[in-house]
Write a structure and sequence with these properties.
mainly alpha; 2 domains; 7 helices
């Protein structure tokens, strides 16, 4: 089907009806006609851009949205294959949908970095040298705890007792 003129009779009839009447029923039938292809595209992006927070049905929903947008904007009189026209719509909706999850992760990572940043952990009046020393001491104690060098647990939950 590389040639735009090579359309099945059913698809040609659907596009003619869509151009003339713009009825919801015709749009639905066009959607169902191309839905198998849309599922294939969803599977491609599901494998190509996996994300731990996004499920298969999310990809399918996003490609379905792109398919509907492409149906609304397609003009079969321009002699372009529908799938060639529609593919950027499907890809765009998937990538835009995934970007919402990526933005969420970036903000979480930014909050974590700010949480361990020097402004919140140490006083604003500490010098650079004091910040380096405090970080080195923190790292050393963490290393000692991992190795089991410091076996004794402090009698209370006071960090000063652990330090002593």
């Amino acid at each position: 089907m590389d040639n735009p003129q090579v359309l099945s009779d059913e698809e040609r009839l659907l596009w003619q009806q869509w151009l003339c009447l713009r009825e919801a029923d015709t749009r639905t039938r066009l959607f169902l006609f191309h839905s198998a292809w849309s599922r294939t595209v969803a599977g491609y992006y599901y494998n190509r851009y996996p994300h731990t927070l996004v499920q298969w049905h999310d990809y399918l929903s996003l490609t379905s949205q792109g398919l509907l947008q492409a149906i609304d904007g397609f003009d079969p009189l321009r002699q372009v294959r529908f799938r060639t026209y529609a593919e950027p719509f499907l890809k765009g909706t998937v990538l835009k949908g995934l970007s919402a999850y990526i933005k969420d992760q970036r903000s979480i990572a930014r909050e974590r970095l700010e949480g361990i940043g020097s402004e919140q952990r140490f006083g604003a009046t500490d010098s650079d040298f004091e910040l380096v020393v405090n970080n080195a001491v923190d790292l050393a104690f963490g290393y000692f705890f991992e190795l089991g060098v410091i076996d004794e647990e402090p009698p209370d939950n006071n960090p000063l007792s652990a330090y002593v």
